[in-house]
Amino acid sequence: MIGDKWTLLIARDLAAGPRRTMELHTGLFPISSRTLVARLRDMVKDNLIERTDFGGNPPHIEYALTERGRVLLPLVDALRVVGQTLHCNQCEDRKRHLGFYCEACPEHIPPAQEEPMSREVPLPSARRRRDDSIVLL
Fold this sequence. Notes:
Elements: H1 7-14, E1 19-20, H2 21-27, H3 33-45, E2 49-53, E3 61-65, H4 67-70, H5 73-85, H6 91-98, H7 126-131
Antiparallel strand pairs: 1-3, 2-3
């Protein structure tokens, strides 16, 4: 269960609170969405996380750690300390290779909330304007 690939990283990301599937997917680069969904299903089955379906369109599903899943957090923290002590996966190396810091890194700065871009409506072409008068029955 805890030796399965991605389990501890998913638990690490859920330690901050409930997350949607795509939020987890973004934070767990380079995991595929198929692998992530399979791991989430296994973790729900093992009672490490709970899945809450809020319904809606598009679907709104959140995952959160259960009490049983929170037992993994001291292990995640211990592995982080060991990695930092051994200078594994230095923040600057990750930034240089992948272009960003991981969310757990103290160097991580969340991206600023961008204002929605205004969508320009393309003007109809000249040919389209000529054809507007044709009505097909």
